[in-house]
Amino acid sequence: xxxxxxxxxxxxxxxxxxxxxxxxxxxxxxxxxxxxxxxxxxxxxxxxxxxxxxxxxxxxxxxxxxxxxxxxxxxxxxxxxxxxxxxxxxxxxxxxxxxxxxxxxxxxxxxxxxxxxxxxxxxxxxxxxxxxxxxxxxxxxxxxxxxxxxxxxxxxxxxxxxxxxxxxxxxxxxxxxxxxxxxxxxxxxxxxxxxxxxxxxxxxxxxxxxxxxxxxxxxxxxxxxxxxxxxxxxxxxxxxxxxxxxxxxxxxxxxxxxxxxxxxxxxxxxxxxxxxxxxxxxxxxxxx
Amino acid sequence: xxxxxxxxxxxxxxxxxxxxxxxxxxxxxxxxxxxxxxxxxxxxxxxxxxxxxxxxxxxxxxxxxxxxxxxxxxxxxxxxxxxxxxxxxxx
Lengths: 288, 91
What we know:
The structure holds 2 protein chains of 2 kinds.
Chain A lengths: L13 H21 L2 E5 L2 E4 L3 H7 L2 H31 L4 H16 L2 H11 L6 H8 L10 H29 L3 H9 L4 H29 L3 H6 L11 H11 L3 H32 L1
Antiparallel strand pairs in A: 1-2
Helix pairs in contact in A: 1-12, 2-12, 3-7, 3-9, 4-7, 7-9, 9-12, 11-12
Chain B lengths: L8 H23 L15 H22 L4 H18 L1
Helix pairs in contact in B: 2-3
């Protein structure tokens, strides 16, 4: 017999739906509406069809920005996830030392994003910043305001400093949830440290890791404040990521139609990726 | 009514169609509830899941037509509708 779920509980979601309608659905519809018009001012808009979409999709500056964005998110994930797992594995299992580690790790997470940008802006300066000055004293020609590679590395390093603790904390909680009996069994089998990690810890971390990857991907994909404060998108446009390009277009140039078309493309990318992650998570739960 | 917030007719039609699809799917669900099944997609899906996948695909199909070719968007629409129906039936 096929089981059919009772869906009546969905009526309870109705108030939230109304709220979301006004906070998200109507604004989203407005964006769709703006994306097919050229708007010069109130009451002065012209219907242009899909012109903006064609324009946005073929704009080399935007394509470069998109590639940069994917590159940045990939780099963020490639560094922060293994590093976070590593830190979580090295943390003490309990007692006052564990609490101390947790507090130390949580500090970067508590700092507001624009302050993180400011901290690194000063920290990385060649003349008064400890990091920049130190690198220059060691003989490296480091200048994040002039060299694109240095700027990139600084933004990346800042993100790693800011968000690896989140991955580490998630992994730490996942590790603590593994029963001691697993380790005892592994010890009886004389499993190596690597085998314990590969066959006990990593599979048990899978769920938290999916969440960590999702959170870090979404956050890094929408990154705005930190690079804006640190480099302002420069030098040139080497650290101008998608959201900053969008803001410049919408607020700076007041190019509403074009910015609306661009945000819809941006939204579709985010929607696709989130859906893939969501499906992966729910699918994993079902398989078990 | 369309003057409010500069609504344009094509966008209005677009959202009315989406709303109609959602209402029709809800009525269909009430009339004959569906359960999850496995089609040619690699995951088990309900009717609503397949609709969502179809609509998301439709958006990307339109973007691909716009960005990569000069072919009329009516072709993209036809392809999207055909793909949506295939997904709903066999997906």
